[in-house]
Amino acid sequence: MFDFSTITQWVDELLRSFLPHAAATLVEFILIGLCLLVGYAVIALVLIYVERKVCAFFQCRIGPNRVGPYGTIQSVADMIKMLTKEIIDINHVDRFLFNLAPFVVIIASVLAFGCIPFAKGLHVIDFNVGIFFLIAVSSIGIVGILLAGWASNNKYSLIGAMRSGAQMISYELSIGLSILTVVVFTGSMQLSTIVEGQADGWLLFKGHIPACIAFIVYIIAGTAETNRGPFDLPEADSELTAGYHTEYSGMHFGFFYLAEYLNMFVIASVASTLFLGGWMPLHVPGWESFNQIMDYIPSIFWFFGKTAVVIFIIMWFKWTFPRLRIDQLLRLEWRYLLPINLINLFLMVIIVVFKLHF
Questions:
Q1: Is the pLDDT of residue 148 over 80?
Q2: How far apart are CA 357 and CA 278, in angstroms?
Q3: Contact 164, 227 (CB under 8 A)
Q4: Which among 263, 132, 272 is positioned nearest to 188, based on CA atoms?
Q5: Rounded to an integer, what distance in angstroms lies between the CA atom of residue 231 and that of residue 221?
Q6: What is the DSSP string of 16-39?
Q7: Any bridge partners for residue 119, and if so which?
Q8: Cβ atoms of 87 and 250 closer than 8 Å
Q9: Distance between CA atoms of 62 and 267, rounded to whole angstroms?
């Protein structure tokens, strides 16, 4: 299987051959930042287009079909409109916090995006507490949402922000416990180690029933964490007009919009990395010829293919189930998902301690 680290090492050696150490390191930081931002923008545009097509499919409609072949350039046109749209000044707001909030949300999203191993040897940061870092930086987004609601001087925005705060803090518990179940089984918090540990079978298949339960709970909690339907209470159109970003316009609103889709991508990427082997091909123990054929498929295709399947499941949720009430949403977490997760984690500990796994 091709290892992308050969390319990154070649670029590193090339830069250091004619630049001082500090300058070469700075250039590498800039290149990595540009690659992340370009990837961030491209994935967001693709997901917006896919969301519209999936929505149209479920509702027996056509979807975008005018701008470009099959409407593929519609998202680009929307991006240009968003970039050129006027940012309206709102009276009686806390201007500094109001302008800061979208950047806090987008920074949290980009930091989490940078933790993901996209292919073999293709990751920005890979250290022994990668899972811990990923959970920590992804939790920063709630600060931006609360700032947006409070600084807007709008009661609907404040209610949407408080709903979002209660929802995200609650469901982060289930996300953390689901991830902890994987950490207990693999014995590592390093994402590359977790992926390589699934060379003889994806965790969803070899992790017994607790791994399957953790995967299902993670998908449900991740959908709620990203404020997507049927858990989109902070943005309930019939109640709050637009939720915590009601007063935002132009690219400030665009930051919140992009962050939602990229957070969905991050949730799906982590699910595919932890439970579906990430960039690791499908290997069946004892089927050597089959495994060799699977190895010919580039690892980056495996990663994006698995992530696409999880994203489709999350979109399927949104366009299938009706929106919950806020009390139903919180009851689902505190009365059902959290106890299930705690019991499931205990079962995984028993499996690992008594060596009941394969």
A1: yes
A2: 21
A3: yes
A4: 132
A5: 10
A6: HHHS-HHHHHHHHHHHHHHHHHHH
A7: 122
A8: yes
A9: 28
Quote the pLDDT of residue 235: 67
Length of the chain as a residue count = 358
Report whether 87 contacts 127 (CB < 8 A): no
The C-alpha atoms of residue 120 and residue 4 are separated, in whole angstroms, by: 6
Phi and psi at residue 156, to the nearest 5°:
-70, -40
3-state helix, strand, coil in the chain (%, to 5): 70, 0, 30
- What is the residue type of 69? P
Q: Give the Cα separation of 207 and 63 in Å (integer).
A: 40
Reply yes or no on whether the pLDDT at 61 is more than 80.
Answer: yes
Going by C-alpha positions, the residue among 157, 124, 140 that lies closest to residue 253 is 157
C-alpha 286/C-alpha 284 separation (Å) is: 6
Q: How does pLDDT run across 183-217, given as a tens digit for each residue?
A: 999 888 888 889 988 888 888 888 889 999 999 99
- Residue 84 burial by Cβ neighbours in a 10 Å radius (0-12, 13-18, 19+): exposed
